[in-house]
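Please check our next protein.
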Amino acid sequence: MVNNSVDEQISQLIALLSQNNISHNAIVSNLQKLTALMRSPETRSDLKHEHWTPIEILAKEGRQILAKTEMSDHELDFITELLRFLRNSCGGLCENPNFILNNNELISFPKEVLKCFIPKEQQKEITVLKVVIQLFGNVLLSSEYSKPLVWSLFFGENIFGRLLQHKDMAIRECVLMVLFNSLSNENIEPIFNTAEGPSILHSVTDTLLSNPIDWGVLFIEHLLSREDFIDRCYSTLPLKNRLLILDITEERLKNVQDEHSFSIPGALIGSLKNRFLRNITQICNMKDYDIEPAETVSILSILCSASICDAYVSILQNSKDLLQTTVETLKCIHLLGKEGVNVFSSVQELKHQVDPQLSKEVACHPLYGFKKNLIRLIGNVCCGCKDNQDLVRRLEGIPLIMDCCKFDAKNPYITQWCILAIRNLLENNLENQAIIAGISATGEVADVKLLNEMGIQIHSENGKIRLNSWPTS
């Protein structure tokens, strides 16, 4: 029977420990068999309190080895296999990790291993470090009671900060698992309120830039559930790290309508909107690539995604300064783009779309998609909102958007977004419909085919284009 296997190995271990000259090789061999048994949930549950007595003795022996200035390969193997047994015994079961947490000898051993092996660089030593981190990860997953203890150890002694900069990516992945699973409402506060918090966030995002580890993404998402994250943590990061967080934010926003397990607070969207308003004034001052617009471009894309979410649309529709600034910025870059070849100029040659190399070069442009997204945001916040429709009219935004409705390889689908924006601006708004009807018949923006695509029926009368009908909803 399975139970006899555990009893048998524990009995053999007790016999080995009773000998005068304990053989580490024999102990390691016995532990390997116990470790293998612990891979099964059934045998893990067969561990009784009395079975832990010889393990306590081994843990004490392990602590004595750790106190030495040097350890032999046999001793290192012993440390490794004892940790593997403890790690496996804690998988998916609360009784065993709770017993370890409440036993000073058993919990002190992995704590001391962790501190001792952080600076080690040999591969076998890195393996020990990985196993002990996995042990704490299993304890966290199996016992809610463990969170304060693990957090105090890893955060309080800056172990998170040190390990998140480890050269071994597997170590970083294990640490990210521990970091995420040790979070609680109480534990998250130090990320916002201490000097170590921003350093940890910096290290996590650095890791994600080179390796998109799920545990790290989950950690960032957890922080994004705090409405003060942008104002208190995000701003401390370098640009490339901030862009990573914006990418995660937008990816989650795409699913916000369908998922309720994770939501971004409206106040956080408001903070991003305010940051956008502060930064966007620099865009029109760009000369070639003298200003880094990537953050502003990314935030604009997020605001576009948020503007079609029921949870955030009212926040953005009620922000008149956002709409006004967006229209004025569109007007600025559109006019500047017509003043010769510059960073704002359209790329209207079809070859930039069909040639893969040219298409790739265009996609790397710092303002790629920016103009399109300005129009997209205007159209979205004007949908069903007469006050915003009227504001765009007063800002002369309707003919502006009409004039933007031309192919531009730097702004894919800009024509379609212009069509949608005009539709949203004219819907149930007679004053805005009159703007379209009054456009000169000889003006460039009066593209009959384009207007028909928008659902606008027009005819010429006394040199003017008149609106014939507009389907309302």
Summary: Residues 123-142 form the longest helix (20 residues).
